[in-house]
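seq:
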Amino acid sequence: PSGMPAGPAPEANVYPFYRRDAAVALREAVERFDGGRAVVTTPDTSLTCGGAPLKFALLLEDYLDRRGRLDGAEVVLTRPTDALFGTSDVKAPYERALREHWRDRAITFRPDFTPDRVDTTAGVVHGEDGDGVSFDLLAPVTPQGPLDVLEDSALAGEDGYVAVDPHTLRHREYDAVHAVGDCTDVPTSKT
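struct:
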C-alpha cells in the first residue's frame, strides 16, 4: 500500500511484522499498548503463511486479556475476502473451526477489506474501496512474493518461484537442484 513505511515506524505506530526489526519493535509497542485500536491487515496477495495474521490477532487479544488491558482496547483483523482463513475445499474444515472459535474472542473481523493506502499522520489505513479503518497500532502483513534473487535467476518459473516437480521437489530443468518451502512454485507452500 502507498504510504506504508518500509520498516518499523514507531512514531506512526506502524509495524510490518514480517520484518525482523519491525517484529522486535512491535513486541515493545505491544508491551506499551494500553488501549485504543490495534489493526492487523492482510494484503490481497499470496502469503507464506495464510494463518499468520490470524495468529497474531489471536495472540494480541490473548496478551491484552491476560494483562487486564483488553477493556478499552479493540483488536481488528482485516482480510481481502470474507474468509478468515481460506476458501478452498481443503481449508473448509479449518475455516469452520476458526469461525466457531472466533465467536468467543474479542476480535473484530473486517472482511472484504484490501489495504491500499496508509495515512500515518491521521492513523488511518484506507482500503481499495475508499473506506478507512483508524488505528492506534497497525500491524500490517505486507504483500509477499518471490525473492528478487530467485525471480531474476534461471531457476525461476513464470511466477518467479523455483520451478519444481511437486512430487519430487526436483527442479524441472536442472536435475541436480531441489527446492523446498516458500521459494517453490508448489501451491501448498503458499496460501
